[in-house]
Automatic annotation (TrEMBL), chain B:
Family to which this protein belongs: Belongs to the complex I subunit 4L family.
Quaternary structure, from the entry: NDH-1 is composed of 14 different subunits. Subunits NuoA, H, J, K, L, M, N constitute the membrane sector of the complex.
Membrane topology, record value: Multi-pass membrane protein
TM ranges: 6-23, 28-48, 60-83
Ranges in a coiled coil: none
PANTHER family cross-referenced by the UniProt entry: NADH DEHYDROGENASE SUBUNIT 4L-RELATED, NADH-UBIQUINONE OXIDOREDUCTASE SUBUNIT ND4L
Location of this chain's protein in the cell: Cell membrane; Membrane
4Fe-4S listed as a keyword: no
EC number assigned by the record: 7.1.1.-
Gene Ontology cellular component terms for the protein in this record: plasma membrane
Keywords: Cell membrane, Membrane, NAD, Oxidoreductase, Quinone, Translocase, Transmembrane, Transmembrane helix, Transport
Record has DNA repair as a keyword: no
Protein name from the UniProt record: NADH-quinone oxidoreductase subunit K
Length: 637, 99
């Protein structure tokens, strides 16, 4: 596909899933029977268009790979001229392929997973909406278009997390995700305002061209606002609390949110805004701190969760922390952030689809302490989940090995104390990741069968999922194996992205082989500790109570919700209570008091209206006399 | 004769009329008292016209007479109607609006 054709067809990529969502939502029950097929078709078609564009882009020379298309003038108001335009460059190409590719596979998987759900059509409509919003987000050529997609993603995630709205917990989780995301959205909104005030434009080109002429303080403010936005969407500390609860949604949604869409948006925003962050070292320090803290935060939580989906959610938080850390390292890390994002998209989707498959077979049980020994009854799920597991802990030659090693090396490559702290955090995170993922693996697929220990419930009969679910899992597993080597060896992705994010010659503190050995050793220690803990000892079906303080804290998400409650909810409630008091006693009292006073006065005055003509006449005479007297007095004086 | 005396007479007549309006209950008497006040004012106008040697006051006196004539027509008709329906010409009895 040549550049002109690509430009003229660019709108088709987000429009296809959007049209699917519109047809399914407006068509109503009439589309119930074939709605899921239509939605899957639009997702696949969008992927095919994207893939054709990729082939065309790869065949052009590096300089003219970027393609732009302006659809219409969007906001022509005074000095602010915003066009609704799309731009497809090397960076957005990666995202388009990930979103539509993994997204389409998740659509296929959902056909099987949601087969018995009465609202399946609505589910697929929302999935399509999710894809469309995310595609607008990554394709927009200005921040306002990005903001449109950003809000669309927030809306779609709200609808999907709360899809089973008859469950109060799901409705609450959806609301929580929406509210926490809103905090981040404020950051993006303020960033837009700063851009308009500073550059008079919100297009990527104008902002990045104008950035070098602007003072560092403005850029730092801009960077921190963008970071706040990224924290909200990517579930980074301090806005991480929604991600765990978001597991209330159907499992394919979790896969979609965690792998292809939503949480990657924050990383995209930071990498896309690279020219701003490059000139604002203060903001970049903020980014790496957030990334490093979150990657440990998520990893520690992941160790203590017994719910398989919540453990995976914590791991997403941690892995996104890696990406944010890499993005905060500047040109040294942008390409690695995207590399990890792509490989993570594959293996995390695989892990979630595997978890969904396990739940499908185990009557929607999510407690890993009630799994065990599933590898024989679910061989395909076991194999695909296992591939995802090996990829996430970074065993060569699986995908995570390449991407995570690069990030750890780049973190150490910062040099000095900063490099040691960041690299150390990333290395420690890799060890903890190995521990908790091994734990998930052992509890679910190995050991004794603990399916109905200690309960009277009928024993579940776990079975392998239908082919419509296993085929996407297998395809994604292939991606988890191959994507790392394909993208990393020889720096393929780095060279591909170089025109957008800049070149960087890596700075190695240690030889690569030594670094790799150290990382693998740390990973091996993590795996070994988990093996000793969960494979050589019996696993109790109820979580033990006599555990360390850290475990207690991790089970409660390291008190993330408690902090929010103490710092935000309680003071907020007090403020509202105060406002209500001011309102009812002050404002209501004032208006009510005026009314009462007038009513009382009127009751007095009413007595004068006695109905006798002569008394009215007397008052008229008296009044006339007074007026005359005044007139005369004035004349005399 | 000193024209001021006419003014004193006029003031006296006006006061008698005003007291009548305020003190009497019979609608016909009240009505006559109003006429008395109007004519007191007429007398004052004519007197001033004579004192200032101009016709303005006399012209206004004619207007007042016209208004008084019209007022008699309407007022008497109202009093007649009230008397017919209520069998009373007392102004204190006509207080329906207050009830």
């Amino acid at each position: 596909m040549n550049a002109e054709l690509t430009a003229s067809l660019l709108w088709l990529v987000p429009a296809l899933p959007l049209a699917g969502a519109a047809i399914l939502l407006l068509g109503g029950r009439a589309t119930d029977r074939w709605g899921h097929l239509l939605a899957t078709t639009t997702a696949v078609a969008s992927f095919l268009v994207g893939a054709a564009m990729f082939v065309g882009m790869a065949s052009r020379s590096a300089d003219d790979r970027g393609v732009s298309d302006i659809l219409f003038s969007w906001v022509p108001v005074g000095e602010l001229q915003v066009d609704f335009g799309f731009r497809l460059d090397q960076l957005s190409m990666c995202f388009v392929l990930l979103i539509t590719g993994v997204g389409a596979l998740i659509h296929v998987y959902s056909i099987g997973y949601m087969a018995h759900d009465p609202a399946r059509r609505r589910f697929f409509a929302y999935l399509n909406l999710f894809l469309a919003a995310m595609l607008v987000l990554v394709l927009a050529d200005n921040y306002l278009g990005l903001y449109l997609g950003w809000e669309g993603v927030g809306l779609a995630s709200y609808l999907l997390i709360g899809f089973w709205q008859h469950k109060p917990s799901a409705a609450t989780a959806a609301k929580k995700a929406f509210v926490v995301n809103r905090v981040g959205d404020i950051g993006l909104a303020v960033a837009l305002m700063i851009m308009f005030a500073t550059f008079g434009s919100v297009s990527f080109a104008a902002v990045f061209d104008g950035a070098p002429q602007v003072g560092e303080s403005t850029l730092t403010a801009l960077g921190f606002m963008l970071l706040l936005a990224a924290c909200g969407k990517s579930a980074q500390v301090p806005l991480q609390s929604w991600l765990g609860d978001a597991m209330e949604g159907p499992t394919p949604v979790s896969a979609l949110i965690h792998a292809a869409t939503m949480v990657t948006a924050g990383v995209y925003l930071i990498v896309r805004s690279g020219p701003v962050f490059d000139l604002a070292p203060g903001a970049r320090v903020g980014v790496v701190v957030v990334g490093a803290v979150t990657l440990l935060f998520g990893a520690v939580i992941g160790c203590a969760k017994d719910d398989i989906k919540k453990a995976l959610a914590a791991s997403t938080m941690s892995q996104i922390g890696y990406m944010v850390l890499a993005a905060g390292l500047g040109p040294a890390g942008y390409a690695f952030a995207i590399l990890h994002l792509l490989t993570h998209g594959f293996f995390k989707a695989g892990l979630f689809l595997g978890a969904g498959s396990v739940m499908h077979g185990m009557d929607d049980e999510t407690d890993m302490r009630r799994f065990g020994g599933l590898r024989t009854v679910m061989p395909i799920t076991f194999a695909t989940f296992g591939v995802g597991y090996l990829a996430i802990i970074g065993v060569p030659p699986f995908a995570g090995f390449y991407s995570k090693d690069h990030i750890i090396e780049a973190a150490f490559g910062e040099g000095g104390a900063k490099g040691l702290i960041l690299g150390g955090a990333a290395l420690l995170g890799a060890g903890i990741t190995a521990f908790y993922m091994t734990r998930v693996m052992l509890l679910t697929f190995f050991g004794e069968k603990r399916w109905h220990d200690g309960t009277d419930a009928p024993a579940p009969h776990p079975h392998e999922s239908p082919r419509v679910m296993t085929v996407p899992m297998i395809l994604i597993a292939i991606g988890s194996v191959a994507s790392g080597a394909l993208l990393a060896i020889g720096g393929t992705l780095e060279h591909w992205l170089a025109p957008v994010v800049g070149e960087h010659t890596p700075h190695h503190v240690l030889p690569v082989w030594a670094m790799t050995l150290i990382i693998l050793a740390v990973v091996a220690v993590g795996v070994g500790v988990a093996y000793r803990q969960y494979a050589t000892r019996p696993v109790p079906v109820t979580a033990p109570e006599d555990v360390s303080l850290l475990t207690v804290a991790a089970r409660r998400d390291l008190y993330g919700d408690t902090v929010n409650e103490e710092l935000l909810m309680r003071p907020g409630r007090r403020v509202t209570a105060g406002l209500v008091a001011v309102e009812s006693d002050g404002v209501d009292g004032l208006t009510g008091g005026v009314g009462t006073a007038i009513a009382r006065m009127s009751r007095r005055i009413r007595g004068w209206q006695n109905g006798y003509v002569r008394s009215y006449a007397l008052s008229m005479f008296a009044g006339t006399a007074v007026v005359l007297a005044l007139v005369m007095a004035v004349n005399v004086l | 004769m000193n024209p001021e005396n006419y003014l004193y007479l006029s003031a006296l007549l006006f006061t008698i009329g005003a007291s009548g309006v305020l003190l009497r209950r019979n609608a016909i008497v009240v009505f006559m008292c109003i006429e008395l006040m109007l004519n007191a004012a007429n007398l004052a106008f004519v007197t001033f016209a004579r004192m200032t040697q101009s016709f303005d006051g006399q012209v206004i006196a004619f207007f007042t007479m016209v208004v008084a004539a019209a007022e008699v027509v309407v007022g008497l008709a109202i009093i007649m109607t009230i008397f017919r329906s209520r069998r009373s010409a007392s102004v204190d009895d006509a207080d329906l609006l207050k009830r």
